[in-house]
Amino acid sequence: MGEVQQCEGVRCERPPSFHLDASCSCDRLIMRRRKIAVAAGFCLSFFIATLLNLLCAPGFDHHQQHPRLQDGTDASLRAIAPDLLQQLRERYAEVLRYRQHRVTPPTSASARLLRPLERRLMDLQKWDYDKVPGSDSDTLSLSQPGSKIDVSLRSPRLGCQDIRNGTDVRYLGSGYTKAVYKSLLNGSLSVAMKSVDFGGHDIQNCVRHYGTLEDCYRLAAFKIVKEMILLQRLQHPNILQLYGYCYQDSNDISDTLTTITELGSPLEMIQLLQSPWEDRFRICLSLVRLLHYLAHSPLGSITLLDFRPRQFVVVDGELKVTDLDDASMEETPCFSHSDCFLEFPARNFTLQCSVEGKCQNMNEKRNLYNAYRFFFTYLLPHSAPSSLRPLLDTIVNATGELRWGVDEALVQLEKVFYLYRNGLYLPNITDTPKGEYREVAHTVVAEEDYRCWPSYHHSGCLLSVFDLNEAKDVCSSHSQCQAFVWTNQTTWTGRQLVFFKTGSRTLVSDPDKTTYVKLTD
User: Tens digit of pLDDT for each residue in 359-377?
Assistant: First the structure.
């Protein structure tokens, strides 16, 4: 009689002669069920995280009536874990440090009239991070009703009403702390909106350890407040603009914060490597101008601790930093030079310890080396004009070895910009260009394109030139080129854009363009 085996509710029969080591079909069935359960669990967790993300999107007004605490405990009476309390206190102290660093206000009566409006901004309700009853005075405590964290900012251009009236809200992405959305406000202005990501790493990890969503939200929200202060205090063309903010109840938490900022395009390094050198140089020049400002900012020298391309966006061709929550104005203390150790994956540096007990220029040097390893080494030298390459190589090497500070790096890049914009990088411009060309005014070659690299056009050869002589030299150096079209378009440096063509058989009328046809011998 066959042996019967019960496998977790699955009945499986085996004949007496069945070998003991042979696998049973019920074993395979159990394994399949386990795999299905694991996959279902993964899908469910992904769905819940996505749902939380959408529910907490700026402007999403879900009027849930659930109690604020599942156990019914009053928020003002519950205790916080000591280490979470300490983290809240440290974040609060950091926000206060950045808030208190202000540019000296105007003194004249007329200037005071122009002083920006200030208002109470941050309401991290229920907690006053100063002292605990029955504890030392420097620990955190519950606040009295109405106690708030006061952060003064200019009166915002945009607020909650603008968010509620926004259209075309789209999720762009998220990091450890924040989720970013795109929205069209007032039917014309595209903006980025940032809020704490309830499904993100910071919130999920905190809740897993401490079991309190509201306190974990407050901890994460401090980073957004800090970023708001920095975006307000640091005014520079290469720092994203802060347009406004909004407080609204969300996810059973009062006064959740959403910031409204300028919208930029993500910095795509692969795409940037394929772009013309002039655009890549603009990114590097923008970056050094930014780092120079950060080294001499009103708050002191500021370093970007999370320095990666994803922390930047491009707005109208200009590089702008968008994430400042991990910026720091703290100078590294030291007792000796060995304390000023600057460590990177591929190289380490030891800086000088000043008589004041601070590592000299460490914030500045950290920024500059990160600019070298993420940007300069890839974007500066390749396909640059040959006469500029020695200077560009010097810039790359000097920043990679930290022989220069950011001041000298800016001077040298501005020198490259001056030489390039004014055509001084060209060989003797009085030389007669190779070949002769016939000018055909008010015409354009409609077709007859060929590809070159790098080009401003994906299917043709569209390059920038300083003047007509350089255009003729470029055409003479391309074996395919038999004509070129002088357009009415210029680049950010004021240089002319020129289409290079394989012939001139398809000439058509165009009042804004001029065609130059190579003459054959």
Answer: 999 999 999 999 999 999 9
Residues 143 and 133: their CA atoms lie apart, in Å, by 10
Question: In 328-467, which residue ranges form alpha helices assigned H by DSSP?
Answer: 362-371, 377-379, 389-400, 406-421
- The Cα–Cα gap between 382 and 416 comes to 14
Measured distance CA(259)–CA(58) in Å, rounded: 9
- Would you state the structure tokens that stand for residue 390, as one six-digit string? 């020695």
Tens of pLDDT, residue by residue over 408-425, are: 999 999 999 999 999 999
Helix (H, G, I), strand (E, B) or coil at 385: coil
User: CB within 8 A of 171, min separation 6: which ones?
Assistant: 53, 54, 57, 179, 180, 181
Q: What tens digit of pLDDT does each residue of 87-136 get?
A: 888 888 888 787 776 433 333 333 323 333 233 333 443 344 444 333 33
β-bridge mates for residue 93, sequence order: none
Catalogue the active-site residues.
Answer: 306
Spatial contact of 139 and 133, defined as CB atoms under 8 Å apart: no
Which two three-digit tokens encode residue 177?
A: 């702390």
Whole-number Å distance between alpha carbons of 272 and 379: 8
Q: What does R_g of the chain's alpha carbons equal in angstroms?
A: 31
Instruction: Give the whole-angstrom CA distance, residue 80 versus residue 184.
Output: 40
Q: Which CATH class is domain 82-102+115-262?
A: alpha beta
CA distance 500 to 482: 8
- Would the CA dihedral through 283, 289, 291, 294 be positive or negative? negative
Pick the CATH number of 437-518 from 2.40.50.140, 3.40.630.30, 3.50.4.10, 3.30.300.30: 3.50.4.10
> 460-497 pLDDT, tens per residue?
999 999 999 999 999 999 999 999 999 989 999 999 99
φ, ψ for residue 418, nearest 5 deg: -65, -45
Strand partners, 443: 509
Beta carbons within 10 angstroms of residue 397's beta carbon: 14
Report the DSSP pairing between strands 189-196 and 178-185: antiparallel
Q: How far apart are the first and last CA of the chain?
A: 103
Q: Is the pLDDT of residue 74 over 50?
A: no
DSSP secondary structure, 95-158, as one string = HHHHHH--PPPP-SHHHHHTSPP-EE----TTEETT--TTS-TTS-EEPPTT-----EEPPPSB
Q: Where in the chain is the domain with CATH 3.50.4.10?
A: 437-518
Domain with CATH 3.30.200.20 in the chain: 82-102+115-262
Phi, psi of 148 (to 5 degrees): -140, 160
- Positive or negative, the CA dihedral 375, 364, 152, 258 is positive
**Whether CATH 1.10.510.10 fits 265-421:** yes
